[in-house]
Amino acid sequence: MDYTLLHTLVWLLPAVAFTTQELVRLSVSPGIVAECGKPVTLNCDASSPGEELSIKHMEWLQNGKSVCSMDTAIPNHTHSPSDFYCEYKQGQLSLILKRVKPQEKGNYTCKLHSNQGALSKKTTVELQECCGIAEGVRTTDRLTCTFKHVYPDGDVHWFHGSHNLSDGSVEQHTSKQVEEGGWLTIRSDLERKSSHGPYNCSLMSTTSGRHIASTLVPNPKSPGRVRSQQPSHKARNGVGSLGPIWTLLCFSVLLVATLN
Ligand SMILES: *[C@@H]1O[C@H](CO)[C@@H](O)[C@H](O)[C@H]1NC(C)=O
Ligand SMILES: *[C@@H]1O[C@H](CO)[C@@H](O)[C@H](O)[C@H]1NC(C)=O
Ligand SMILES: *[C@@H]1O[C@H](CO)[C@@H](O)[C@H](O)[C@H]1NC(C)=O
Ligand SMILES: *[C@@H]1O[C@H](CO)[C@@H](O)[C@H](O)[C@H]1NC(C)=O
């Protein structure tokens, strides 16, 4: 190849790329680290500063697989039974993930075909670390902690009071299960040695090493009578729910008032 031809090509190529970019623009929502179970909206906007833009096709793909397109977009999401839906209006295709789950994380690409050329843009969805439910149960021969709706993977550490039992002195067995949506259920059993004092288990993320959740395994009410297989301590996101107690209290007050 002679020098002038190469020289011309070097100058011509970026110019061609530049002109197509000038004609039609595509912008997508920035990458997001979403809270587990919360809705996520990914927008894709096509626009053209110059001539009339005629959109032939717009589509969202997750990790290379088609999720939805402007043809499958629905006007009223309230009727959609699935976990996501798409809306399309005037050059904007929005993908709405109703309750974001581990399976939905990854790379999302928006593709456009128009009278002014084809384009695609990428964005990402990541999930924050989370645990939906943590509960501790005490039975006659063992203590069990169960963490449900967990993301990502985690390790369970047991404590007796403030003493860390994860040094191998007490036998513990941990099992993990992948549930629908990519959530993990992590269960850990501890052989019971001493019957007294509060036991505690803590879930640490294997990726960040951060503490995701913890739960106290309650003491039995009287030492002689241990109720088995009865979840007696529950926590959601580490915060106890007072809702049902208040409802019960209000109901009782109402009942007493009515009876009087
Ligand atoms: C869509 O839902 C809105 C309320 O959110 C309602 O006003 C509208 O009539 C609905 N449209 C259709 C086509 O069902
Ligand atoms: C997303 O893209 C990045 C970089 O292109 C790649 O490293 C990663 O594996 C992709 N993730 C998925 C879930 O495909
Ligand atoms: C629970 O575990 C934490 C460590 O994660 C520890 O610092 C704390 O003392 C424990 N609490 C009780 C009541 O055992
Ligand atoms: C408990 O011990 C384990 C294993 O030695 C360690 O990885 C973990 O960080 C300890 N946890 C705390 C809160 O000290």
Name its key features.
mainly beta; Immunoglobulin-like; five-stranded mixed beta sheet; five-stranded antiparallel beta sheet; 47% strand
Kindly describe this structure.
The protein has 260 residues and is mainly β. The protein has two domains: 25-127, Immunoglobulin-like, CATH 2.60.40; 130-221, Immunoglobulin-like (Sandwich), CATH 2.60.40. 15% of the residues lie in helices and 47% in strands. The chain has helices at 3-23, 243-259, and strands at residues 25-28, 32-34, 40-47, 55-62, 65-69, 84-89, 92-97, 106-114, 117-127, 130-138, 142-151, 154-160, 163-164, 172-178, 184-191, 199-205, 211-217, 233-236. The strands form four sheets. A five-stranded mixed beta sheet has the order 2-9-8-4-5, with no helix packed on it. Strands 14-15-11-10-18 form a five-stranded antiparallel beta sheet, with no helix packed on it. Strands 1-3-7-6 form a four-stranded antiparallel beta sheet. Strand 8 and strand 9 (117-127) form a beta hairpin. Residues 14-21 and 222-251 have low confidence and may be disordered. The protein binds 2-acetamido-2-deoxy-beta-D-glucopyranose (4 copies). Residues 75-76 line the site of one 2-acetamido-2-deoxy-beta-D-glucopyranose.
Low-confidence sequence ranges: 14-21, 222-251
Task: Work out the radius of gyration.
Answer: 28 Å
Please work out how many helical segments DSSP would assign: 2
CATH topology of the largest domain: Immunoglobulin-like
CATH architecture of the largest domain: Sandwich
CATH H-tier superfamily of the largest domain = Immunoglobulins
Q: In terms of structural class, how would the helical and strand content be classed?
A: mainly beta
- Cofactors and ligands present? 2-acetamido-2-deoxy-beta-D-glucopyranose
Count the E strands. Answer: 18
Strand order of the largest sheet: 2-9-8-4-5
Question: What percentage of amino acids are in beta strands?
Answer: over 45%
